[in-house]
Amino acid sequence: LGFRGENKTIAVLDAGFFKVNEYNAFDSLWLNQRIVGYRDFVDLQDDSIFKESAHGLSVLSIMGGNLPGEIVGTAPASDYWLMRTEEGATEYQIEEYNCTAGAELADIAGVDIINSSLGYSTFDDPAMSYTYADMNGNTTVISRAADIAATKGMIVVTSAGNLGSSLWRYISAPADGHNVVSIGALNHDGHYTAFSSRGPTVDGRVKPDLSAQGRDVLVVNRAGSLSTGSGTSFASPIIAGLFACLWQAFPEKTSREIIENVLESASHFMGPNDSLGYGIPDFRLAFLKMQEESGSPYQRDRLPLAFPNPFTNELHVMLFARNAGVYSVELFDTFGKRITRKERHLGELRFYDFYFSGLEKLPKGIYILRAGSAKDVKTVKVVKG
Fold it and tell me: Is residue 96 pLDDT above 80, yes or no?
């Protein structure tokens, strides 16, 4: 749809951004002055963030990387604050306070979205470590700070954690935050990965909130070349960048309104689970929902919904699959002649946007849409203007 995250600022809290100031994948960010600031909260030497960990380099490449034909991030035209809050070699609670300071700076700087591909559970000093009982959104320093940041109007996106195959198994902080959007990891086929941390929170809330590809994600690596990496660390920035694009399209919306529309677009919104959360978000569907002129609350029982109506050269038809199966949308003229048809197998509790283009040559007048599955078919009148 052409949205690239313009006029939105993303703060990236990470362990370092090795040679981001040198590699070609980020030259458009520098040339267009989209790196609006950077700060090192670990060594207090701002230039050291470009000498340390490549983790933040890869995370940033998923959002802001731009090598046409090779890699284009999910928000290549957003502005970025780069913040080193994590000491990669060790794990101590001071890093939670570094993240808190980073969130405070983000608030002062007018940041819209925070991406924190970090998680805290156990520390090198066992006396500092948390237990699953602490994953209630109110105990850990970083989760409390992340929730405060969200109340300031920012969208806080964080990785769920990579502890799914460990004895811990559950999400880490700040993924347990009440207002934090935590992201689980999927394989390319849409199934959750074994390493992705599970929910719920100890007080029974759905976590992760959403899921995105986290295995074999294309990234810029330490050498400045392209490779694949795996982890919820790489699922999180996919979603953070898309949030920037959607918010660009609807700048008048609050952070909470943007989040709620995305959650409602997700594949498992009607039946969330402890692995996928509310599931795989459909940002195009969220966009179409928010574009409805009436502004009335979105309801599944209003589907199928066709718009724009009247249409000219393109038509969108939103469906909701209550049960898994084959769903189709057919367009007929008033004489019963079928003009076009599209079909797709949809999973249970899945939204889908059937998109038709090239309709400009159709004569003006009334047409009939027949949409649904073999067990549940509905008709909708549409007008070609």
Answer: yes
Place of tokens 């559950």: 170
Global pTM reads 0.83
Is residue 176 within 8 Å of residue 136, measured between CB atoms? Answer: yes
Mean pLDDT for 27-53 is 93
Whether pLDDT at 18 is above 80: yes
Among all chains, which residue has been given the structure tokens 């948390």?
130
> What distance in Å separates the CA atoms of residue 19 and residue 47, rounded to the nearest whole number?
10
pLDDT class of 299 with cuts at 50, 70, 90: low
| Percent of residues, the chain, with pLDDT higher than 90 | 83
**Tokens at 144, concatenated:** 């409390």
352, 343 Cβ separation under 8 angstroms? no
CA distance 253 to 275: 29
pLDDT per residue as tens digits for the range 306-346? 988 999 999 999 888 888 899 999 999 999 999 999 999 98
Phi, psi of 103 (to 5 degrees): -65, -35
Q: What angle do helix axes 141-151 and 94-108 make, rounded to 10 degrees?
A: 10
What tokens were used for 2?
Answer: 């052409």
Interatomic CA distance for residues 329 and 370, integer angstroms: 6
- Average of per-residue pLDDT across 13-31: 97
pLDDT (average), residues 32-53: 92
Checking if the pLDDT of 349 tops 80, the result is no
Q: How far is residue 348 from each of residues 190, 326, 351, 354, measured CA to CA in Å?
A: 13, 11, 9, 17
Q: Cα–Cα distance between 237 and 214 in angstroms, integer? A: 10
